Every structure is written in C-alpha cells, then in structure tokens.
Amino acid sequence: MNTKSVNPKVDRRDGKLAIAHFYVAFIALAIGGLAGLLQTLVRSGKFELPSWTGYYQILTIHGVVLGLVLTTFFIMGFQLAAVSKTSGTLTDKQRLTGWIGFWTMTIGTVMAAIMILTNQASVLYTFYAPLQAHALFYLGLTLVIVGSWIDGAAIIMAYSSWRKANPGKPSPLLTFMSLVNTLMWIVATIGVASTVLFQLLPWSLGLVERVDVLVSRTLFWYFGHPLVYFWLLPAYMAWYAIVPKIIGGKIFSDSLARMSFILFLLFSIPVGFHHQLMEPGIDPAWKFLQVILTFLVVIPSLMTAFSLFATFEMFGRSKGSTGLFGWVKKLPWGDARFAVPFIGMLAFIPAGAGGLVNASHQLNQVVHNTIWVTGHFHLTLATSVVLTFFGISYWLVPHLTGRVLTKAMNKLAIIQGIVWAIGMTFMSGAMHAAGLLGAPRRSSFSTYGGSEQAAEWIPYQVAQAVGGSILFLGIILMLYIFINLAFFAPKGEEEFPVGEVADAAEKTPMVFENWKLWLGITVLLILFAYTIPFIDMIENAPIGSKGYKFF
Amino acid sequence: MHIHKFEKIWLIFGITTLIVFLSVIGVSAFYLGNQPPSCLATVNPEKVDTTEPFNEPGLKKVEGKEWDYELVFVASAFAYNPGQVEVPKGAKVKVIATTKDVIHGFQVAGTNINMMLEPGYISEYVTTFDKAGDYLIVCNEYCGVSHHMMSSKIEVVE
Question: Contact A393/A405 with Cβ under 8 angstroms?
C-alpha cells in the first residue's frame, strides 16, 4: 500500500531540524499566551497594565506571536518531519535548505519582536496601512515569509526526488498533503509579500509618500484567508492520516483524502473579499462571487467530517460494537494522542457554523469586527488546530528526541485538553454572545462614556477573563509537558503513527499528482475572482495615504 | 474513483443545503437589495472638511430621494463628528461617512449598520430607525492608542 512508511524512524538529523522549529513555536506559545491572559484581564475592567506597556502593544504581540510565529514554525517542523518519515531521509541539500529556511524565519521573528517590544510597531498582526510601523517590522515579517518559502522548497525538493525514484506511483499520503499545504501557502503569501515589498516597505522607508490603502488590504486578505487553511490543513493531515493509526483503525479512503486537499487548494485562495464585505471600493457583485467561492470549501470540510467518523465507526465495529453509536465506547479515550485532537474536532463543529455566518454576504453585517469574530477563531485556530498540534506534539516530540510519552504525561495531557475545553467554553462562548450585542473586537476596556449598551457587555468580558485564566493554566501545563518530552522523559522509542488505507479502498488515481492541472485551475480561479475588481481599484483609486503613528 | 454510498448521500445533502443557502442570500442581495455597504465613491482624505457633504456633518432633511434624511459623519483619530445626534423615529436615513486619517470602523451597536471607513472612500448605508432609544456608535477597527475611547451616539426620538 502506498501509505506504508519508508522510514521506521525520522532520521536523527532531520529530527533536529524539525525540533528546532518546535522550540521556537513553544517559546511563542509561552509569550503569546501570557499576552493573551493580560488582555482578557485588562478587558474585564478589573486590572491595569503597568505604564511602560499598552493594551495594543500586548495585542500585537499576541497576534504576531501566536497567529504567525507559533503556527508557521510548528507547521513547517511537522511537515518536514512527515516528509522525512514517509518519503525517506532528506538529502544533505534538502536538509541544508530546511536549516536556511529556519534561520531566515528566526532572524525575521527577532527583528519584528524588537520593533514590537520598543513600541515602534503596535499595528496588530494585520498591520493595516495607513497606520505605519517601523520598516524593520515589515522587513522582519518578510523574512519570516521568505524563510517559510525556503522551508517549503525543501519539502518540494523531497517530493520531486521521491516521484523521480518511484515513477507512476502516487506519493505517500502525508508527503502529498504536506506538499499541497506548502503550494497553497506559497501561492497565498505572494499577496502579502507583494504589499509589503512594493507598498509598505518603500513607504515606511520614506521612498514614497503615499500608500493605496484598499490595494494593500486586498493583497493582505488575498493571503489572510488561505492563512487560516494553512493552519487547518496540518490538523486535517493528523485527522486523516495519523489518528486512524493511533486508534488502531485504517484510513477510510486515500483518494478522498487527496481530493479534499486538492479542493482546499482550489477554493481557499480566491475568497479574500469575504473579509472585506463591509468596506467601500469593491462592487457588491464581486463580493458575492467570492462569498460563493468561500462556501465551496464546505464540501471538502463535509468530506473530512464523513471520513473521520467513518474511520471511527469502522474501527468500533471491527471491535464488535453494536447499535448505532456503540462504537463510540470502543475508542481509546485514555490515549491523549487521540483524545486531545478529538476535542479539537468537536470544537470544529460550532466553529465551522460560526464561519458560515461570518462569510455570508449580509449576515456579516451583524458580526463584522465584533468580538464574535475573535470567539470564532479561538474555536477554529486556538482550539481545533492548536489542540491537534498539541496532540501531534505528544508523540512527535518524544519520537524526535528519542524519548517516550509516559503514563503520567499522557494523563496530564488529557487533563490539559479538558482544561483547554473548559477555558475556551467560557472565553469563546462569552465572546460570541458579547459580539452579537455589538461589543467590538481589538478594543481595550471602555465604558464608552457610561453607555448603557456598553455596560451590558461587561459581564461577558469578566467571563472572558475567567476563561482566559483557565486557558493560561492550560498553556502552563502544555509547556511543562513539552519540556518534559523534549529533555527529561525516559529514553526510548515513541512511534510515529502513519495510517494505512482500508483494504476495501480502491487504487488512488494519478490525476491528483498532476500539478500543472491543479495549479493551473488555482491560477484561473484567482484571476477570475480578482482581475476586474483589482483593475477597478487601481483605476478609481483616490489619492493614497500618508503614514500615521497613533501608538 | 469509488465513493461510498453513504458518503454520496451525505455530500448530496450537504451540497443541496449549500445551494439553498446561497440562493437565499443571493435573492436577498440582488432581488431584495440587501447589499453590504459598497459605495464606490471616493474623496480626497486631506480635504474632507471642505468637501460636500462632509463640510457640514450631522442630520439633514432631503427632498425627492428614496430616503428622508442624510446623516453625515466624519471620523478621525479618535472621535466622530457629530459626537451625538438626534434622529426622529421611523425616519428612513442614508448614513454617509468617511475618515480623515487612518481606517476606522463605524458600527451602530444593536443594529445592522456596520461599515469600514477607509481613507479616500465614502461609505454609505440606508436604514430605517424604527425603535426609539439610544444607540452607541463604536469604532470597531483598531485605529491607535485611544481606539476604545472613540464613540458617538444616535438618539432615536419620538
């Protein structure tokens, strides 16, 4: 079967490259988590920050460090390990490429961090012009992206050498999935790289006076929505290809898994306008078109849900369960590698439903830029994705460091998952509710001059602080487990679980590996969704904006 | 490629639901005219104060249009002009707003009025105020250090 692994273990040298990425990711978790805790406390109205820092500075740290640094480093580390495991040890050249990518990203992160910490870049992670950060902030973020491209190049090189060595065969599933996510990431980041290189950098350096705000926002959101799929697809990799092995079952269908990934590649990029539904300068008909394209990702999401639960049910029935839901009892609830990502999967149900509201042509008007949106992505990114990443770490970190996940750590990991779920129920639930009442996102505590409406929001903000504090406890637990698995757990062998395809499944068609076809359709869809509105924006542009530093 | 029977049923159900849902918002958008605020008009952000109608922010009665009043707002860091305004109950109002500096939000809490204000562009939304009371306007897009102090108020009076 083509999903059989090549290496029983990830090569030690590749392991070092992957774990280096994880170190940065978990340092980011510690810093970003602390910043998140402080925000919820400030917004409860019962706590004030010391005078040398400000709410929006902390908010910038939280967003950049968790949304961009934690995710990108973790994903690249995971994908490099997955490729090395399923397609064979990286060549020296591929590994060197990976290291160059890692250091480029790290240097960029440090540069951006210095600018944020010295309060020269409190522009949040979306850095909307014409708020103007220091040029080194933009340069730092550019290096993070360029570094991720270099990391991605290592993955593409490993994929091509596997294909060359195995003509006519479909690539290993995890390698295929890593490749799709990398390709999507490269196509998407062209948007943010363009606005930074051609607009924001020359403007922050003083080489040009004005910036076209709408063009910069459009380029940002061209990247900003695929960004969330870049976070999600590695979680899907674990759900499709790893969790089945952990429970002792089989992958439901290799072909369907590949098809859903291809659909994500096609439909996650030409959809950025649904983040811009409330803004002037874009014709509503084009907004509607992108709303439709956005909703097409519902299809691969439904396929994923089906596939996962089919795997669970097949496994339960093979263990002799009866009745409609008897198989639920047969699942290994005591295994953190399964239980923690499973909590993530459950969170994705309300998270996905909330996403449909956000992306709707008119419903968006009720929730746009309210704290509902924050609640939404704390279910998607900060629960579904992050808990799955934690679930991956529980076996991947010891696998890479030559240690084992002990019973005690496994138990602690399950407690961590439960703590997370409780904290998030409070925080995200309160955010959704307050958002429907109109409470804005990304705002410090305010009574808005004693407004009655704003007073109604405050109890929810207190609930957010309660949830945030519980979540911070979860972060401390996670860091403790990570440090244990990386440095102190007993030496041994921890399995890298790679699922095998069910015997009844059909042969995988080779059309999924036809990148000229898929990238071609992706480009056509992007041109279709963006060309005319983009020409509109440039033709009807107002004079650009000078920079403002209101922080 | 083989697709399991149950998965086919699941996907057909899902896709049908999707088509129904998209048709509903499509009809709402193009037949009932429920479009998001997407006015394609521009303005020089540095000359807002001397450009009509932003030279006189506030509520104005208009004749011969589909709406009875125009309510003009100018946003800048960190305030709206006017800072407070009275609107008669039941009035059909076109809200017209823009910004003089950075991006601001314009959200009337508890209503569907929610617009981004971007330098160089005019944002518009037509609505009817049919419930009396005070409505808080908040800036819901981060605009700088006093972002959370930026607000205004619409009083809908009998």
Answer: no
Q: Where do runs of H (alpha helix) occur along A118-239?
A: 135-165, 173-194, 201-204, 213-237
Is pLDDT above 50 for A4? no
pTM, entire model: 0.95
Distance CA A8, CA A497 (A): 10
- Cβ-defined contact of B120 to A541 (cutoff 8 Å): yes
Decide if pLDDT at B91 tops 90: yes
State the catalytic residue, choosing from A43, A95, A378, A403.
A378
pLDDT of residue A84: 96
β-partners of residue B136 are B153
Q: How far apart are CA A213 and CA A217, in angstroms?
A: 6
**Which residues of chain B make contact with A282, given a CB cutoff of 8 A?**
38
DSSP-derived letter for residue A515 is H
pLDDT at A1 over 50: no
Instruction: With CB atoms and an 8 Å threshold, state whether A284 touches B121.
Output: no
Q: Which two tokens stand for residue A277?
A: 């539904």
- State how far the Cα of A218 lies from the Cα of A195, in Å rounded to an integer: 9
For residue B76, the SS3 value is strand
Q: Residue B7: which of A124, A164, A300, A316 has the closest Cα? A: A300
Residues in chain B closer than 8 A to A292 (CB atoms): 22
DSSP symbol at B74: E
B106 three-state secondary structure: strand
Determine what percent of chain B falls in helix, strand and coil, rounding each to the nearest 5: 20, 35, 40
Query: If you average pLDDT over residues B84-110, what whole number do you get?
Result: 95
B138 beta partners: B107, B151
Q: Does B118 touch chain A (CB under 8 A)?
A: yes
pLDDT tens digits, A66-106 = 999 999 999 999 999 999 999 999 999 999 999 999 999 99
> Is the pLDDT confidence value at A2 over 60?
no
The pLDDT of A408-414, averaged and rounded, is 97
To the nearest whole Å, the CA of B34 is away from the closest chain A CA by 7
Question: For residue A510, is pLDDT > 90?
Answer: no
Nearest 5°: phi and psi at B156?
A: -90, 115
B149 DSSP assignment: G
Query: Are the C-beta atoms of residues A21 and A74 closer than 8 Å to each other?
Result: yes
B116 and A278 within 8 Å at the Cβ level: the answer is: yes
Q: A542 to chain B: which residues are within 8 Å by CB?
A: 42-45, 119-121
Percent of chain A residues topping a pLDDT of 70: 99
* B121/A542 CB distance under 8 A: yes
